[in-house]
Design brief:
Elements (H helix, E strand, L loop, with lengths): L69 E2 L3 H10 L3 E7 L2 E6 L4 H10 L5 E9 L7 E9 L4 E9 L5 E2 L8 H12 L3 E2 L29 H8 L6
Parallel strand pairs: 3-6, 7-8
Antiparallel strand pairs: 1-2, 2-3, 4-5, 5-6
Length: 234
């Protein structure tokens, strides 16, 4: 026969001296609202660190000195100094370029000697430089060459504004156009030139463009207006 169904097991009576188990009490509802959670405290911003000091730039070394003119002491220059004395102002060589500076009073004689006695048979160039703040405002420069010696040299002299210079055309025919250009650009007059007139600018142009006191922005407005029919050449 099947076993009879067993009911709930009987609860054993408490043993003397033992505490009875506490009854489970259902939690009571409270009308108090739960406290809102406290906002998380933001961490303090780290203190700004100062940028490291920029290291001082190293001192710029002094610019090395460039080449300087050196005395040009050869038989030619010694002979000129012996003959003309203080008329030969200086004889120098700069980076292989040799030149003598003479007083304007002996310039024609020095040029002729360079051609006839020293063999400088070719006048390469004649030009000038303007120094308006100087008493002798112009340097006039002759570049000479000797085919026989394969040597180049320069003769330089200083003149005042308005002072005339003797033409070198009778010594070197190549001086013709070179002197005309110096006359055109600087206004220096060469006495004895066969046809001294402008070579780059029109004959009726006013002024000389390579002088430092010539305002190139204004130019000759009258000539521009008459010949080109405009207000300015700029």
């Amino acid at each position: 026969m099947p076993e009879e169904s067993k009911g709930p097991e009987p609860v054993s009576p408490p043993v003397d001296g033992a505490k009875a188990p506490a009854e489970t009490v259902a939690p009571q509802k409270s009308d108090a609202k739960p406290e809102a959670p406290q906002a998380a405290t933001k961490p303090a911003a780290p203190a700004a660190t100062k940028p490291a000091a920029t290291p001082a730039k190293p001192a710029v070394p002094p610019k090395p000195e460039g080449p300087k003119p050196e005395p040009w002491d050869v038989e030619l220059t010694r002979g000129l100094k012996q003959q003309y004395g203080s008329g030969v102002l200086e004889t120098l060589s700069y980076l292989g370029q040799k030149y003598i500076t003479v007083d304007s009073s002996i310039l024609p004689e020095i040029l002729r000697r360079m051609n006839e006695a020293e063999g400088f048979d070719y006048c390469v160039d004649i030009t000038a430089v303007h120094y308006p703040k100087r008493e002798q405002q112009f340097d006039i420069l002759y570049v000479l060459y000797s085919f026989a010696r394969n040597e180049r040299m320069r003769v330089k002299s200083r003149i005042k504004d308005g002072e005339h210079v003797q033409s070198a055309f009778s010594i070197w025919p190549t001086a013709d156009w070179l002197e005309r250009e110096v006359f055109d650009m600087f206004g220096i007059v060469f006495d004895g030139h066969p046809g001294l007139k402008r070579i780059l600018l029109p004959e009726d142009w006013h002024g000389h463009p390579l002088r430092k006191d010539y305002d190139i922005l204004q130019q000759d407005r009258e000539w521009v207006q008459i010949n080109l029919g405009i207000e300015s050449g700029q």
